[in-house]
Amino acid sequence: MRELLIILSFISLNVRAQDVIVKKDGSTILSKVLEVNVADIKYKKFSKPNGPTYSISKSDILSVNYENGEKDSFNTADIPAKEETNAVANNGEPVLVNKDPDVRNKEIIELYNHDVTPTNKISKSNDEAKACYTIWNIAPTSIMSNEDVEINLTRSVEGIHHFDAVLISGHHGQSFYPMFVYHINIKNKTEKVIYIDKGNCFRIIDDGSTFCYYDPSEQTTVSHGSGSGISIGLGSIAGVLGIGGGLGQLADGIVMGGGSSNSVSTTYSQQRIIAIPPHGNRNLTTFKKVDQYPWKIVEHAEYFATKTSRNVPKRGVVKRGEVLTFNTNNSPWRKKYIITYSTLSNFKTYSTVQFELFLHEMIGTKYLMDDKFIRSHYNKLEKYINGINERTIIDWDFIEK
Length: 401
Known about the structure:
This protein has helices at residues 2-16, 82-89, 103-112, 162-169, 371-379, and strands at residues 19-23, 28-36, 40-45, 54-57, 61-65, 71-73, 95-96, 117-118, 131-138, 149-161, 176-188, 194-197, 202-204, 210-212, 220-225, 231-234, 237-239, 249-251, 254-257, 263-268, 273-276, 281-283, 288-289, 297-299, 323-325, 334-342, 349-365, 385-386, 393-398. By secondary structure, it is mainly β.
């Protein structure tokens, strides 16, 4: 009997040592509540006291039963949205609302980060590799998923005209060159529309230079016929968030004039604000090219060939069949990304997700200058690389002499 009382006492103490968050859908979270804010509650999971800090909106909570026996109940009508609270507190200025990574974040990173090895199709020798595969990983500190959005990279193959391929990869050999094209796909996990501001989305290259995903000056006009075509002028410019020293700018209007009755012109321009419906998804960029001379790429997606880095490798860095492995500390190539979004179309409040990709493996190989061989590399990579799947971030390119 005495032993039973001891066991019951232990169970009682163990139950009371945790805070219980009761959600409106009837589920519960065993936790240690850290903060009770105006619009949300921050907590750690009871089973992982040293794990990540989570956040849950009060509008999703029925009550919190604390370890000391006290209880808080919540009325949704009395809870202002986090965005509204912050906007008022900052006199109407745009407010950055930080969002912690959720449990899905680690899962996504692990899906992309895996080692690969060359098959026997790639012969080993002491000869200098003339080409290489580059395998990229996602830095563990990256945020690929939070309560609002989830980020994924999708891969496709596009035939690129030699002029653009030279700019991207440095290859000079043929009219069209197949290359891997990657898209940053953004999934909306909420019941609201999420707005992506490309004017405040950036790629930061390994040398510190910054690329903005929206540039109103990058308008491409293709004229057909003898006329002068359509001229494009930008209207007045107004800042939105002002991140990055004036890179966040919006063109109020596009003025289209001139032209000739004997000419037909098509103008391609970028869209700055992307609206993603509830539980929908969109790509940050699309791959657009003009299918008539001058075969110009209008909008680039992501590329991970060696020539896309400013620190281009030279012959001798890797041998045929050799695998060089890097980590976040010693990787020679890195690309950081910042994506800005809001659940409000006026961006009175906004959040960012930031992630980094780094070169993890370089596999040396040889190349043949025929289109069939190149396309076989891109379409049947499993013949040459063990462990590759649709999540592997991979590219293939020539190494400079």
